[in-house]
């Protein structure tokens, strides 16, 4: 199984992604076909999907951005269907993004992970990611 970069978004892919997102966050937002199509059309965004015979079983979003000091990547929304976890799918998704980043002169890659996802933390450390001691701030513009 080699993760593929999504180029076209079918209704089946939309349903699979929304199912995966419901396993990632406690209050998922339903993403439309139009939103996903816009995401995959963005020049700096790559949506990787992992497929098995049953269809889409995992995903990862990688966003590349350029600053005066460097080109960086942010990895978001890494999730594998619970029936397919511990089979190396998340590793293959992440390695696909890392390979692309290395071949495109990306200097740094950041990601965040829920503190309870210990298996994910082990994976990221095994791939060379280091936990940073930083004051990371967020302003939630959707928060009421």
UniProtKB/TrEMBL annotation:
Pfam families per the UniProt record, alphabetical: Acetyltransf_1
Domain N-acetyltransferase: 7-144
Recorded superkingdom: Bacteria
Keyword Transferase: yes
SUPFAM superfamilies cross-referenced by the UniProt entry: Acyl-CoA N-acyltransferases (Nat)
Keyword terms, alphabetized: Acyltransferase, Transferase
Spans traversing the lipid bilayer: none
GO molecular function annotations of the record: acyltransferase activity, transferring groups other than amino-acyl groups
Keyword Transferase appears in the UniProt entry: yes
Official protein name in the record: N-acetyltransferase domain-containing protein
């Amino acid at each position: 199984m080699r993760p593929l970069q999504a180029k076209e978004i079918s209704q089946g892919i939309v349903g699979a992604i929304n199912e995966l997102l419901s396993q990632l966050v406690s209050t998922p937002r339903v993403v439309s076909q139009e939103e996903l199509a816009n995401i995959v059309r963005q020049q700096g965004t790559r949506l990787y999907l992992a497929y098995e015979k049953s269809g889409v079983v995992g995903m990862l979003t990688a966003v590349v951005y350029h600053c005066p000091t460097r080109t960086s990547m942010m990895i978001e929304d890494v999730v594998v269907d619970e029936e397919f976890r511990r089979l190396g799918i998340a590793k293959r998704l992440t390695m696909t993004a890392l390979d692309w980043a290395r071949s495109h002169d990306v200097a740094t890659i950041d990601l965040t992970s829920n503190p309870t996802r210990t298996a994910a933390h082990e994976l990221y450390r095994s791939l060379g990611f280091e936990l940073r001691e930083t004051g990371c701030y967020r302003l939630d513009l959707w928060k009421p």
